[in-house]
Design a protein that fits this description.
Layout lengths: L4 H19 L11 H50 L3 H16 L3 E7 L2 E8 L6 H13 L16 E5 L5 E7 L11 H21 L3
Antiparallel strand pairs: 1-2, 1-4, 3-4
């Protein structure tokens, strides 16, 4: 339950061997005199595997449920914070914090106006470089997701998602995933953040109109 399926499998093996070594004749050896003891050892091993699998599956489901609850809480808090924000810098900062809390990776949010990056807020210790600014602009121009280290963003460390608002100022979200620990489907959570951010940008632009 504490360390996963591999360790549980090893525990089942060790349990069967310990039963053989200490409790079957001849004792203190792995030899078996009575054929019925072979079945007992095999049954003990099978039961150990079943219990290990059930415990591992239960733990994984509990972990998944806890993760979903945490993600829902982050999204709810983010929505409230964006509604309460009274300037675009606060919105961008709140967005970065929410994405970092959801994915536990470095984050950058860029504001793009008239095809140029007007501002960028980074969280997590990785600042975007020139190639990543270019990848972000390209993602916004094409309106498509741009994955890190793939053509045409081969030099980018960030995955980029465009955020197109109805008004003139748009944004790009960047997440620097570890290639070995990249989530299978981040688009759902990022999509929610994108939608809220687009609405917030529209609201800021409309509030400036006379």
């Amino acid at each position: 339950m504490g360390f996963g399926l591999g360790q549980s499998f090893c525990s089942a093996v060790l349990g069967a061997l310990a039963y053989n070594f200490f409790l079957t004749e001849p004792r203190n050896t792995l030899l078996v005199d009575d054929p019925s003891n072979i079945w007992a050892i095999g049954l003990l091993f099978v039961v150990g595997l079943i219990v290990s699998s059930v415990a591992f599956t239960s733990q994984r489901r509990a972990s998944d449920a806890a993760l979903l609850r945490r993600q829902a809480t982050v999204l709810q808090d983010y929505s409230r914070a964006v509604v309460a924000a009274d300037n675009i810098q606060a919105i961008v900062s709140t967005t970065c914090q929410a994405l970092a809390a959801l994915f536990q990776v470095p984050v950058v949010v860029m504001l793009v106006s008239e095809g140029e990056v007007a501002a960028a807020k980074a969280v997590g210790g990785i600042d975007p470089q020139k190639a990543e600014f270019e990848a972000a602009r390209l993602s916004l121009e094409t309106g498509t997701f741009m994955r890190a280290e793939t053509y045409p963003a081969t030099a980018s460390r960030f995955d980029f998602w465009p955020v197109k608002a109805s008004a003139g100022q748009h944004a790009v979200i960047g997440l620097a995933f570890n290639p070995e620990d990249r989530p299978a489907a981040p688009d759902t959570l990022v999509g929610i953040i994108r939608s809220v951010l687009a609405l917030a940008l529209d609201r800021q632009q409309l509030s400036r109109l006379p």
